[in-house]
Amino acid sequence: MIKNFIKSAFRNLWKTKGYSFLNIFGLALGITVTALIFLWVQDELSYNDYFSNKKDIYVAKSKQTYDGNINVFGATPGPFAKALKKDIPGILNSGRIDWGNTKLFTVGDKKIYQSGNYVDPEILSILNPEFLAGDAKTALDNPSSIVLSESTAKRFFNDDNPVGKTIKFDNNQVYTVSAVTKDFPKNTNFRYDWLLNFKILEANKDFGYDFWGNNSIQTIVQLEPNADLNAVNAKVKNYIAEINNDKEANSENFLYPMERWRMYDRFEQGIEKDGRIKNVRLFTSIAWLVLLIACINFMNLSTARSEKRAKEVSMRKIVGAKKGSLIMQFLGESIVFAFVAGILAIGMVKLGLPTFNTMVNKELAIDFGNWQQIGFISAIILVVGIISGSYPAFFLSSFDPLTTLKGGKRKAGSSNLIRKGLVITQFTAAIILMICTSVIYLQIQFAKNRDLGFDRSQVIMTNILGDMSKHIPVIKQELKATGNVETVGLSRGSVLQVGSNTSSFEWDGKDPKSSILIGFSFVDEDFVDALSMKIMDGRTFRPNLLGDSSSVLINESMAKLIQPDGRVAGKLIKFQGEALTVAGVVKNYVYNSIYDEAEPLVLAPLALGKAYGVEAGILNIKTKPGVDFPKVLKEIEGIVKKYNPDFPFNYTFLDDDFNNYFSSEMMLQKLASLFSILAIIISCLGLLGLAAFSAEQRAREVSIRKVLGASVGRLVRMLNTEFIILVGISCLIAYPIAWWFMQDWLKGYNYHMDMPWMIFLMVAGLAIVIALFTISTQALRAATSNPTKTLRNE
């Protein structure tokens, strides 16, 4: 039976090569899209699966209430990890890990910047990396020991065993390699080039890692296999408040499972909302939509060609074939077609994966030894074959043999109605995708074009490393002397990020019971000019003015907290009891989140920061308009290396860093655009086939009209009208669905555009133009054909 199905399928494939190509290629595109999305979804949902004890690993989070807003942070005090293991039953292990550092490694002539972490030795026990060399139990016992990843070890020592060899760290300290671990896969939250003992950081008392009031470090916890999370969290909740004997604490802690880190990383008012799971759901929906469009293509093209097989079906029935066996035959043929399409799709996936991986920044691959992948693709092929062939099978097997063999035609009313319904469904799905893609793109542009409060163009940022800090005044002077640099400002970190916040600021009139979270950073007197910020009240710092080291700049949000009109230049505020003068008010600028309004912020002079162990970290170089950037970069590199010769020059453009904020949305938009285009192509393939068949069916009518004097244009309009009406109905159905879906998506951003009505009209126009172009090729061919060829047999 199966052999006959295959023979019959390939015989029909060869008879109708054009329609078969449209059918198979359309199905192959649908399966390709579904397979690519499946690989991406599988990678996302398997995040951190590398860790065999994933279900027992947690991160300690802090839930803090300020001015009625509940915020969730991943930072906790330094002593927390050790205390948890000691005092809370059910906790097997806990350790600290910093937020990551990039340091210069020097081995012989090789000087390369590498990223890694300072961790407690317990982190190795919790994450359990595979050790390729060295002793896992003692790898970080000695603070002068360093653990390397396999790729880092090969980068510096090739295939030699590096254990016992030394690495110079930031041209300063020397560490001995104690172990080498296998690289963690890309879909994990922990990836490093090197690991050092956290005690190295702890030894610097300026960092305050031994202070219970300093939330500055990550705490990773491993529970015992059968521990009750609710019971553990009940003890963790007020642990820090009890340690600090703070009965009115506005903060509580909880353990958050690794299983949810990747997918559910967004909180609102202290409650877990969603995160990347929204993208997973979105692309899963897109996959099914595109596959549905491909299946509808197959159904439509198969039923449209039904009359070509009517006599075959009738003859089979007359010689005794049952309806059930005919249904099985046509379903079998459909599955064979789907199998051929599946093979083509696998080839297309293999060819497209490099480009797709670049778009999603992953390392996806088809693994024929992975039963999940092969099982899923096989199931998709089978399901596509059954779904695509179901309606055509029942439709074809229902022909009346006597009517057919007498030359009569089956009434087309019901079949045409179903076929029209399928076309509408198909284009509705495609139009929804087009609208969604357009809204995503417009939202990204809306956020990018908002008033940032600073000018991100023409700004080059370079890290202050090694001996640079000793020569800052002369470096700034020489940079300006090149004639290509307007000004140079210093800051602790990037203008886009403020990593520190506090509720310790006080001012006259503040409610003593009110707790307000305020951002806190350090800059120099040229920072405002380097970023082209606007002073709304007062002035910037004046380093030569006596006592100005205790002056601060604040933003408008902070100024309005102090006084509703924001005119607060010259007023005093206090930080931990120390009086500070507000020198000026800077216009609100966007930091940390591009989608939120500017939170209250205090910018203190770097001279004041030195009392807290804070040094300048970034040189912000504002270049003049129209400069030759390759030339300017060489000039900057020459000056920087002149005073810091042992460190390779590194830099970033502020504009590029800003665009990186949109990496997730840009990926979303690119993928949605790609899949929308493919959905339109698949829809047009089906429309092309249906238009060709419609023109063939109406060939006699067209010929008679042409003989009677109908113009080519009128005939083309007649053949096109039916399909354009279907596309128009699709638009009307797609509008409310797309509106609801994207309105919900936009709610995920505090700063978002209003839903643009114009985009709905533009998408409708585009869909109609694409459909018109597709079907007009067939309509024009029919309208310009010689009527005598059609009518000579009448």
TrEMBL record:
MacB-like periplasmic core domain segment(s): 20-238, 504-638
Main subcellular localisation: membrane
Topology in membrane: Multi-pass membrane protein
Cellular localization per UniProt: Cell membrane
GO molecular function: ATP binding; hydrolase activity; transmembrane transporter activity
Span of domain ABC3 transporter permease C-terminal: 285-400, 674-787
EC numbers on record: 3.6.3.-
Transmembrane segments: 21-41, 282-304, 325-353, 373-396, 417-442, 671-695, 723-742, 757-775
Highest taxon of source: Bacteria
Annotated Gene Ontology cellular component terms: plasma membrane
Alphabetical keyword list: ATP-binding, Cell membrane, Hydrolase, Membrane, Nucleotide-binding, Transmembrane, Transmembrane helix
Listed PANTHER family: ABC-TYPE MACROLIDE FAMILY EXPORT SYSTEM PERMEASE COMPONENT 2, MEMBRANE COMPONENT OF TRANSPORTER-RELATED
Name of the molecule in the record: Macrolide export ATP-binding/permease protein MacB
Gene source species: Sphingobacterium mizutaii
Gene name in the database record: macB_10
